[in-house]
Amino acid sequence: MQRDADNPTFSHSLDSLESEAGRRFEREKFLPRIEALRRRFGARFPQIRLLDVGVGYGHFLRLLETEAGIADLHGMDPFPKSIEIASTKTSARIVRGDITDAEWPFEAGSFDAITSFDVVEHLAEPAQFFRKAARYLRPGGIIVVSTPNRSLPYLMRRIPLIGIPDRNPTHISVRPPSYWRTLARSSGYDILEEWRGEHLTHVRLLPKLLSAVCRLLRIDHRRVPLVRAFEQSYCLVAAPSLRTGKVSGTGA
Predict the structure, then answer these.
(1) For the chain, what are the domain ranges?
(2) Whole-angstrom Cα distance, residue 54 to residue 43?
(3) For residue range 50-108, what is the model confidence (pLDDT) as tens digits?
(4) 127-135 vs 177-186: helix axis angle to the nearest 10?
(5) Predicted structure pTM score
């Protein structure tokens, strides 16, 4: 079972991600985020310069190459072994760096989009990502962020026999969507789009039943208020506010 044993934030094995079920899950997870990027950039989408912060094993970057045809792709991750694994899955240029570093290893104002999926919940001060990312965006650039959806079903994970426990000890900043909206706005961003998705989880059996009912009725489960509380992720697309100008990327 191949995985980066030195990366406590990413518990998946490469074998599980490369399985048929793993690839299906990755597509369910990432394709809506790719479509959100496509909506923002339109015909220019294949030409954008994108940075993925916290690359995991590179599967999102690989999908950007294979599904969207984007060539100018970059990644940043603090774990050398994860970078090594990811570099076998994508031709993106991936370098070592940490969100909390005083400077990221890139030229300021050089990216059209910065993505970061399932990363900010590992930070003691998540505002650092929002502040620093703005420094590396070009005018008109955006960020796309996802993080665990901390709603009632997430809290139910602690219930024995009912909940699916969150066993990741590095999940130190799991917050409700309202927290991330407020943080983005207070960090100088306008929220352009947000949703909860793309995989029902947190408790046993019920999400699968709800998902099956939605498929039967041909309903998008992300649009049903009661059902979407079981979504695994909260996702937001945001841009530095034109009213206040680009927020500072300095300061920890």
Answers:
(1) 14-149+171-200+233-240
(2) 27
(3) 999 999 999 999 999 999 999 999 999 999 999 999 999 999 999 999 999 999 999 99
(4) 40
(5) 0.88
Structure-token pair, residue 104: 């990221």
| Options 3.40.50.10860, 3.30.450.20, 3.40.50.150, 3.40.50.2300; CATH of 14-149+171-200+233-240 | 3.40.50.150
Number of C-beta neighbours around residue 191 at 10 A: 14
- Tell me if residue 17 falls in helix, strand or coil: helix
Written as one letter, the residue type at 107 is: E
Q: What is the DSSP string of 199-232?
A: -B-SBSSHHHHHHHHHHHHT--GGG-HHHHTTBS
Q: H or E stretch including 194?
A: strand 189-196
By the 8 A CB rule, do 201 and 154 touch? no
Identify residue 236 by its one-letter amino acid code: L
Q: In what order do the strands lie in the sheet with 233-240?
A: 93-96, 73-77, 50-53, 111-117, 137-148, 233-240, 189-196
